[in-house]
Amino acid sequence: MDFKRISWIFLMVFSFLNIFLLTIYREADNEENVVYRADQQIPIEDRLKSENIKFAKSFSTQHPKGYYLSGKPTDLNQALADKREILGEDSFLNASTSENNDKLTYTIHDKKWLSEKKQVEAVLKNFLQQEDQILFGQEYAYLADDSSFTKDYPFIVATQSYENIPIDDSSSRLEIALEKQNENYLLLSYTQTHISDLIPLRESMKLYSESEIIDTLYVNNKISNNATIEWTHLAYTLTLKVRGQNVYVPAWFVKIKKEDGSIQIEKINALTNRVITNSQVQKVENT
Length: 287
Known about the structure:
The protein is of the alpha+beta class. It has helices at residues 3-30, 44-50, 76-87, 120-128, 210-219, and strands spanning 54-55, 65-66, 69-73, 97-99, 103-107, 113-114, 141-142, 155-159, 161-162, 165-166, 174-181, 184-192, 195-200, 205-206, 228-242, 245-257, 263-269, 274-275, 282-284.
């Protein structure tokens, strides 16, 4: 990356950082109001148990650190053309298709099998290292929580990350479709999106803990009686688009299975401790 390109990126970043920070205040109007109760000094685990809400482990009180992140959606058509030129092979991923330049779909021709679910991470890691099968493969890592081995449409998910925190968003995602044959799974095809030039917009900040965000969901009646909290994870999520750049914030994702078997995924801004499950991605266009 040459000096002029670096200078341009930082100019753009700092120009829309002010816009983004102002937008955060507006975002609060769209987020759900947070309720606080006097019994918050009681451990959240005890309050959950009192309403027969199940969970696998105690919730961490540690405060991780995260950033506001900026990145640009990768033009995968151009990336594919560049890779073919570097390799001198016009046939590289020649069966791929793309949608709007930022999503690529490819049918996997070399058969790869999973004989059991515990092999997923190792098989996926090996696949991602095969430069003849995928673009930017080594930038992705397995995200078990978002993967599914349901009977009809099993798939596994890998995402990009920044300083070991994944980006759980459709703009940075590798989803591999599987086909179950007897007790084995065949890797069929994948769809891919990618973010380039990920950089922090400011210094790292202390985030709300896992325990605090579960407390927020509980006091705001987002966890019903007799439900099960199946998993939580911290990841970046897209909140703002500014003149071709994406802005991500760290958020806690929580999967809750209700008593009737239905599933809900809640999302809480880890910087503000506000529920943002239904918030829309805001856009700032050229004027």
